[in-house]
From TrEMBL:
<dbReference type="InterPro" id="IPR043429">
    <property type="entry name" value="ArtM/GltK/GlnP/TcyL/YhdX-like"/>
</dbReference>
<feature type="transmembrane region" description="Helical">
    <location>
        <begin position="161"/>
        <end position="188"/>
    </location>
</feature>
<dbReference type="InterPro" id="IPR035906">
    <property type="entry name" value="MetI-like_sf"/>
</dbReference>
<protein>
    <submittedName>
        <fullName>ABC transporter permease</fullName>
    </submittedName>
</protein>
<keyword id="KW-0029">Amino-acid transport</keyword>
<keyword id="KW-0813">Transport</keyword>
<feature type="transmembrane region" description="Helical">
    <location>
        <begin position="12"/>
        <end position="33"/>
    </location>
</feature>
<feature type="transmembrane region" description="Helical">
    <location>
        <begin position="73"/>
        <end position="100"/>
    </location>
</feature>
<feature type="transmembrane region" description="Helical">
    <location>
        <begin position="311"/>
        <end position="334"/>
    </location>
</feature>
<comment type="similarity">
    <text>Belongs to the binding-protein-dependent transport system permease family. HisMQ subfamily.</text>
</comment>
<dbReference type="InterPro" id="IPR000515">
    <property type="entry name" value="MetI-like"/>
</dbReference>
<keyword id="KW-1003">Cell membrane</keyword>
<keyword id="KW-0812">Transmembrane</keyword>
<dbReference type="InterPro" id="IPR010065">
    <property type="entry name" value="AA_ABC_transptr_permease_3TM"/>
</dbReference>
<feature type="transmembrane region" description="Helical">
    <location>
        <begin position="200"/>
        <end position="218"/>
    </location>
</feature>
<keyword id="KW-0472">Membrane</keyword>
<dbReference type="Pfam" id="PF00528">
    <property type="entry name" value="BPD_transp_1"/>
</dbReference>
Length: 378
């Protein structure tokens, strides 16, 4: 027995096991005490309320939600709304941030001044104020009857931005999604046998062909392929409408996030060895070719860890949408707490949803970082 306790490996394992048991005991005791206190106050517990109807509508949702929908469906709609505005923000902010970074490292003084001015303005104004600013502008636009139009297809009014959209049914969306999944599987299976260019071309061509088949088959002869918004009465019918709440949140987060992402990318661009850039110039590369083939690929490796943190922050920043009435996951959970009183369960679902989204972003970015990092002997 003395030899067992004198073993350093045994002591280390015993200490780790004791610490884990202590943490588990603390969590279990906290849950039991909380459950007892909730029961003493006569409050219901459990997740059975998710099958109950909400009784209140949602003004914006990717999926169809009504006042008779269950809490589970409404919460799922809120999570989809958060992912929609979040991932669109990441895409647009990254593109705009890349442009800003290239402007800030440009040799042109005027372009560099414009990029620096943008960063200093949008980075130092709180994001919620920017969202309020764009929401005020959008809600003070003319009514639908006096809406600004562009080619009788795009309209801008205080009801939102109306634009054409493909006239796809639920079955069309299902088949199109299936074709995209099959294209991804094709890319994964052929990555060792075909070059990157032909693989992407074949996959994109297959998706395009499926999309055309969906639009041209199974429709009435007089049915339109594209749904164009038309003014009927006091509102627009057809097409797709981007509501002011969604647009203000997307624009505000994009402009705010681009200022930080631009600085992250600029730091990565400045970390590239000047000798490599001079080698590109010596080979006769243009500035565009140097940025596309040398500077940006080398800078991507340096800026990826910081970019991951900024992506996760922007996804969490979608919660400011509650200030302008955008029904994101946080707003839906807050309303559900007021209506159902299931505070602990809904807060657990709220934290679980954001943990799932942000952990997925971090996992994918870390996986990408593992693939592109320099491999050394250590």
């Amino acid at each position: 027995m003395s030899q067992l306790f004198s073993s350093q490996k045994f002591r280390r394992t015993a200490l780790q096991g004791g610490f884990i048991l202590g943490v588990v005991a603390l969590i279990v005791s906290t849950v039991l005490v909380g459950k007892s206190n909730i029961a003493d106050q006569g409050m219901a517990t459990g997740f059975g309320f998710l099958e109950q109807t909400t009784g209140w509508p949602v003004n914006f949702s990717i999926i169809e939600v009504t006042g008779r929908s269950t809490y589970a469906l409404v919460l799922w709609a809120g999570l989809l709304n958060t992912m929609l505005v979040g991932f669109l923000t990441l895409i647009f902010a990254t593109i705009l941030g890349l442009v800003l970074a290239l402007m800030r490292v440009s040799s042109n003084t005027l372009i560099k001044l414009v990029g620096a001015s943008y960063v200093e303005v949008f980075r130092n104004v709180p994001v919620i104020l920017q969202v309020f600013f764009w929401y005020a502008i959008l809600t003070h636009l003319p009514s639908p009857k006096q809406a600004y139009s562009l080619g009788e297809s795009f309209y801008l009014s205080n009801r939102g931005i109306m634009m054409p959209a493909p006239a796809l049914s639920g079955g069309d969306v299902l088949w199109l999604t299936a074709s995209v999944i099959l294209a991804v599987i094709f890319l994964l299976l052929t990555r060792k046998h075909l070059q990157s260019g032909p693989r992407w071309a074949i996959a994109a061509g297959a998706i395009f062909i499926v999309f055309c088949i969906l639009l041209l088959t199974g429709r009435e002869p007089d049915s339109a392929l594209i749904s164009v918004p038309q003014l009927k009465g006091l509102r627009f019918v057809g097409g797709i409408t981007l509501k002011p709440e969604f647009t203000a949140l997307l624009v505000g987060l994009t402009l705010f996030g681009a200022s930080y992402i631009g600085e992250i990318i600029r730091g990565g661009l400045l970390s590239v060895d000047r000798g490599k850039l001079e080698a590109g110039r010596a080979l006769g590369f243009s500035t565009l070719q140097i940025n596309r083939l040398i500077r940006i690929p080398l800078a991507f490796r340096a800026m990826l860890p910081s970019l991951t943190n900024q992506y996760i922050w922007l996804m969490k920043g979608t919660t400011v949408g509650i200030a302008v009435g955008y029904p994101d996951y946080f707003a839906i959970v807050s309303t559900s707490i007021n209506q159902s009183g299931q505070t602990m369960e809904l807060l657990a679902l709220l934290m679980g949803g954001f943990i799932l989204i942000n952990y997925s972003i971090g996992f994918l970015m870390n996986l990408l970082n593992e693939r592109i990092k320099l491999k050394g002997r250590n």
